[in-house]
Amino acid sequence: MLTFVCKRLFSNATPVTRLVAKPPFKAAKVVEFDFQELLDIRNDVSKRIEEAYGDNGLGIAIVNNVPGLSKVRDNILPLGHKLATLPKKKLEALEKPEIFHSLGWSHGKEQFYGKYDFAKGSFYANVCEDLRRVVDRNMKPTTVANPWPRDSLPELEYAFKAAGKKVTQTAAVLARQLDKYVKERNPDYKTGSLARIIEHGDAHIGRLLHYFPMTSKDNTGEEAMEWCGWHNDHSAFTGLMPAMFIDKHGEETHVDDKESGLLIYSRDDQVFKAKIPPTSIAYQIGETLQVLTGGELQATPHCVVTSQKLVDTGISRNTLAIFMSVDDEELMTPPNKKDIPRVLSRQPKITPRLQDRWIPDEPFKSFGAKTFAYYS
Fold it and tell me: Rg of the chain's alpha carbons, rounded to an integer?
């Protein structure tokens, strides 16, 4: 069941149709790649790329059999729970309000459609290096170090960096196949663009997410079951670790639940639930890549929901997202001006329209600032 409610985010913007999705959800047929087959660029995986990321795709695919993934996942995801349950003062020491919480711990500080987000806690860090170029409250550029909790949770730094490396290195392997696919369909596309972004970018941001357990007090209103509302990622490429559920004792627990998890909004206005196996990494397209590929690859409207089955169980959901993006000064330019209509041709009504935020040849930092403002 789908419920649509129109909301205008900016006075001059097209109203966004807020979608409230209710179970049961259709199971998504998520396109799969094997890590080994992706290594050989001679392998033709174009049909599956089109099925996953093309005009009629869901915008998501998974890479199976990634070497060493299980150990990396087991090391990082339980730390989401451990971090979120640290004493309040220790968490406050990890907050960076002077840079809009773009690094460090954040809970109840960020807004989504005008509401402060208490459903989840996040720890942000640059996975490429320990410094990140950001703007401060005075909108002046500054460089800030990742605020690792070296006293209260020293194992987080190593586990976070190892997980970030695993996700980005696997992304680079998939990216070479995506670059080949786009180049074959758009000769103006600059060869190797996505692989370059992933391999040479220095500001890929990891977000360790702890979705807090839902209680009966939280369970009010149509949108109450959303752990994270509907949105597109505005970066280029997003890697997602398969989620891990943690019980109130801090132990991993199996949840056989067809109603909670990652939801995808299809090109024909349907909602699907995507299942990511624990031995795989999922990859989604961001709006930046939609622009840079001239619309050959389409961004992924998605959200995360809990279910009645998990209410008052004390079970949390923990995952890691890696947002791979271009440098702040890189221009948001499609391969050719004639590609602009295609970039804008498939606009989902449940997310802010791209044309309300994107101006061709404008730097990524401007696009990012407007996107954050639209969702806040």
Answer: 20
